[in-house]
Structure formats: C-alpha cells, structure tokens
Design brief:
heterodimer, A: alpha+beta, Cytochrome-c3 Hydrogenase, chain B, three-stranded antiparallel beta sheet, 8 strands, B: alpha/beta, five-stranded mixed beta sheet, about 20% helix, elongated
Chain lengths: ~400, ~160
C-alpha cells in the first residue's frame, strides 16, 4: 500500500503549544512517526547561569505555566542538596500543599482537554469548572492563581495564615462530590471506553526501556513515583497510595489521573490539618562549591534539576530535564499500528508539555560583547599595567 | 540489596573502571569512571540493577567536558551519577542509545548543544536547534559567541 506523510503542526489544531509530528500512514494505519520539537525555545539553562540562585528560582518558575511549582521545587531542592541542608518542618508541609494543589488543577486541566479532544465537551466544561475552585484555593494560599512564587532555597517565601485554612478545607471538600460524579461518568461511559480502551498501549517493557515517567509509566504497571521512591518534602509523613494500573492504554492513563486527584486531595487535607508550627526558612546565606540534584514528582512525572556551584552566588551549570522529555519518545511505541483517528488522543495521553521540554537553545544577548573569565582577566591585567604607567610605578 | 551491598558490589565488579567514588549523602553517590567503561557500567546499572535513567548532564569546563549520567535505584532510594571526563578537543564517547531508548533524545540534545559526539548513536539528527543554525556552533559552550547579527535579542540578560 502506498505510504503518505500526514503532517500535524507546528501549529497544532488542538493544543496550544507548537510541535511538529510527521505521521507516515498506509491508508488509515500509522506506520511511523517522527517528532520535531524546538519551536518553543527560550534558552533557560543558559539564562539561569546568569542569574543568582534566588533569581533563578523565579526564572525556572516561568519554564511552564502549568507546572509552576514543579521546576522551582526541584531547583531549590537541588540547591539545598549542594550543602546538603534540611528545611524546617513547616516549610516542608507548605511545599507539599502547593505541589499537590498544582497536581489537582493540572490533572483536571488535562482531563478537560482529553474530553475536548475526544469530542466530549461536557467533560471539558465540568472539569474546568471544578478546576476553578482549586485555582481559588491556590489564590487564597499563595496570592496567585498560577506562578505561586512560594519557593526559595532553604524554605518557602510566604507562610500560610491559620485563618484561611478552614475556608480552604471547605472549598476542597466541596469539589469532592462533583469529582465522584465525574469519575463515575468517565468510567461508565460506553463511548469514552470505545474511544480509549485498548488504544495506544505502552507495554511495561517499553515504559522501562524509555524510562517513562509519572502517569505514563504508572498506567503501564511500573510503580514509579518520586514521592514514594525518594521521599522529600512531607510526602513520607502522609498516608497515601500510589495508583498503579496495568493496561497502559489511554483509558488507564485517564482513570489513573482521576484516581490520583483523589489521593492528592487526601494529601492536601492531611497537610492542611496537621500543619506544624515553626520557622518556614532555614536562612541560607551562601552556597558552597559543589553539585546537587533535585527531583520532584510533577503532575506529568519526575522533574529533574542538576545544579553546580563554584561558590559564587550564581550556578555555573543548571540542567533541567522535564518529564515530557522522557515521555515524548514513547510515541514511537504507542502510536505505530494505530489508526490516524486515534493518533490525536494518543498524542495527548502523555499530557505533553512542550514549554517544559524545550527550554534550551540560545539566541544570545544584547548585541554587546559578552566577556568570559579569560577576557576579564586579560582586561584586568591591561588596566593594572595602564595604571602603573600612569602613576609612574615600575 | 541494600545500599552498601550495591556499592560494594559495584566497587568489586568494576575495580578497573572506577576512578573515584564519592558518597556525598545517603541518597547521592557520584562515581567517576573511565570514558571507555561507560557502556558496561551503564548497562549494569540499567539492566541488572533496574536503575531508571534520569538524564545526562553535560558540563563545559576550561580544558575538559564532563558528562554525568544519572541513574535512580528506586528500591533503595539511591541516585548514582556516573561521571566521565572528556579532554578537549577529543569530545567523543560511546553512545548508550543502542542499549536503552531513554538515552536517545538525551544524547541528541547534548550532541547539538555541547558538540559531543556519541559513537554508535542510531540517529544523531538535530532535536531542538532550528535547521538554519550553523554547523559547529554549540550554544551551551562557555566560549559561545553570537553568530547571527539579525537575531532577535533578549534585552533582559
């Protein structure tokens, strides 16, 4: 059968971020896929090397609008790992609260989009209405609906007010019945099952081979969650379950995110009621030379930051690896052999986040000459010589 | 296996390959190995110990480049970073992509941004840089210079 290439992108008809998929099809069947990324570059890793550790926290917060907790949390943990230092107990709980609030809103956002991609706009409307409540909660707690600005190396920047907490708990409780209804609607809907069951299966072996992360791995039977495996913040102080499903298809990824939302609400409520008193900041004064690694289980999987310090107030190297970077290549395993009509929902099933994945290439600075260390040493020697001559010294 | 058993096993198994082993904290171990040994050690960590390949970080230094390959052993909460040092200008190392898929994109990224060649990589095309980016210009290197006078510039830097 003749082969045809179907291009999708770089301006995607459904998702708001640019990417380019070139699908090779035989009739309706997809036989190969090639992914081109790189339309979303901002040069964050290089930019971060020019910022102080405190400033870089804000830069990485802006890698992604949805995971605006994941990157700064992983980054500040990487910086703390250089020393290493433990942050105060209360700060750990606040970090957990913000991170789980983000997971709830991110999973609901994806669920709505998935419904929308499948032509099931009722799900889309319901989930986004629910998500609004969580965004309100985040606004009460942090002052912002997104880009919370809560993290700093050594602790958190803002304390939670005791007066706010009862209202927040009430708001969180209020979304649970609707979420239960939504869970039933999704799990019992025959059309939704027909569109997603047995579609885009990622096998357990492939999930391991690609080092897939987060819900993408957990839906394929790989019990992998940084919050459980390598606990940080207050995750080891809360009783919660890691959800693992076995089939690896789009349906399981969908159900997994719904079930995870309930777990996140459990963690949120626990942390809000058991919030310990005390300091919220370990008051770091300087970062010694060394290297550190920070991991955080973002809604899409593990976010990984590697930071190297030379003892100044700026990182000399800051590596960012977002979860989608590991999950995107799994398309090769999931989409080949499926029909073109299922391609969109499979592409969406890993909950891809391109602005996280692509943060690297550099279209350099201001048009002024940039000086490196050697240039500066040379300039300084020249200047000293000039002054010596000027002052008549030998 | 416990953490100590794993580390002692690694020490004994790869005695000739390991140059330095630093136990930075209970959760973090940095192992410097010979460049030639990367495939053997990485394969052992990934396949035999069931480590998850996190990513690799390339670091540009004055006379050499480093690559750190990060593996998480999830059962014992241990993050092992394998460090190889490449002396300039011989920036070449064996590719891990034929061993496991997870290394494929990671190596493509390091290849185009730092200019390190991965021998045996099945597909070293560009991943992130645009098609009109000139050959031999590597944006994450310390000696990177602006090459395009027409580029839209970031005034914030």
């Amino acid at each position: 059968m003749p082969r045809t290439i179907v291009p999708i992108g770089p301006y995607h008809p459904l998702q708001e971020e640019p990417e380019f998929f070139s699908l090779t099809v035989e009739g309706e069947k997809v036989v190969d896929i090639d992914v081109h990324i790189g339309y979303n570059h901002r040069g964050i890793e290089k930019l971060s090397e020019m910022k102080t550790f405190d400033q870089a926290t804000f830069v990485v917060e802006r890698i992604c609008g949805i995971c605006s907790t994941s990157h700064p949390l992983a980054f500040v943990q990487a910086v703390e790992d250089i020393l290493p230092i433990e942050v105060p107990e209360r700060a750990k709980y606040i970090r957990t609260i913000i991170a789980e609030g983000e997971r709830v809103h991110s999973h609901l956002l994806w669920l709505g989009l998935a419904g929308h991609f499948l032509g099931y706009n009722t799900v889309y409307m319901w989930t986004w209405k629910l998500r609004e409540e969580i965004l309100d909660v985040m606004e009460i707690l942090s002052g912002n609906r997104n880009n919370y600005g809560m993290f700093k190396p050594g602790g958190v920047r803002r304390d939670l007010k005791a007066d706010d907490i009862p209202g927040v708990l009430k708001k969180i409780d209020s979304i649970v019945p609707t979420l239960e209804m939504l869970k039933k609607a999704i799990m019992d809907d025959p059309v939704l099952q027909a569109r997603t069951k047995g579609i885009g299966i990622l096998s357990r072996e492939d999930a391991i081979n690609y080092s897939a992360l987060g819900p993408t791995a957990r839906a394929s039977g790989v019990a992998r969650d940084v919050r459980k495996n390598c606990p940080y913040a207050a995750y080891d102080r809360v009783d919660w379950d890691m959800i693992v499903l076995q089939n690896g298809d789009v349906f399981d990824k969908l159900v997994l995110r719904v079930l995870e939302t309930f777990e996140s609400i459990k963690i949120l409520k626990h942390c809000l009621t058991k919030l310990p008193p005390g300091e919220i900041d370990a008051k770091l004064t300087s970062i010694p030379p060394g290297e550190g690694i920070g991991q955080h289980e973002a809604p899409r999987g593990e976010t990984f930051h590697y930071v190297r310090s030379d003892g100044t107030n700026r990182p000399t190297r800051h590596k960012v690896r977002a979860p989608t970077f590991m999950n995107l290549p799994t398309y090769k395993a999931t989409i080949v052999g499926e029909t073109l009509s299922d391609a969109t929902i499979i592409l969406a099933a890993i909950d891809p986040c391109y602005c996280c994945t692509e943060r690297i290439a550099v279209r350099n600075a201001t048009g002024m000459k940039l000086y490196n260390g050697e240039d500066l040493v040379k300039l300084s020697v020249e200047k000293t010589e000039k002054l010596r001559k000027q002052w008549g010294m030998k | 296996m416990t953490r100590d058993e794993v580390l002692n096993d690694l020490r004994a198994r790869f005695a000739g390959d390991i140059l330095d082993l630093v136990e930075k904290s209970p959760k973090r171990v940095y192992i410097e190995i010979r460049v030639e040994s990367i495939r053997d050690v990485a394969l052992f960590l990934f396949k035999d110990l069931g480590g998850r390949f996190n990513t690799a970080s390339g670091v540009d230094g004055r006379s050499q480049m480093e690559i750190l390959y990060h593996f998480t052993l999830e059962d014992i909460n241990l993050l092992i970073s394998l460090r190889v040092r490449l002396e300039k200008p011989n920036l070449e190392v064996e590719s891990l992509a034929p061993l496991f898929e997870a290394a494929n994109w990671v190596e493509r990224e390091i290849h185009e941004l730092l200019g390190i060649n991965f021998k045996g990589h099945p597909d070293l095309r560009r991943l992130l840089l645009p098609d009109d980016w000139p050959r031999g210009v590597y944006p994450l290197r310390q000696d990177y210079r602006e090459w395009d006078p027409e580029a839209i510039r970031d005034r914030g830097v």
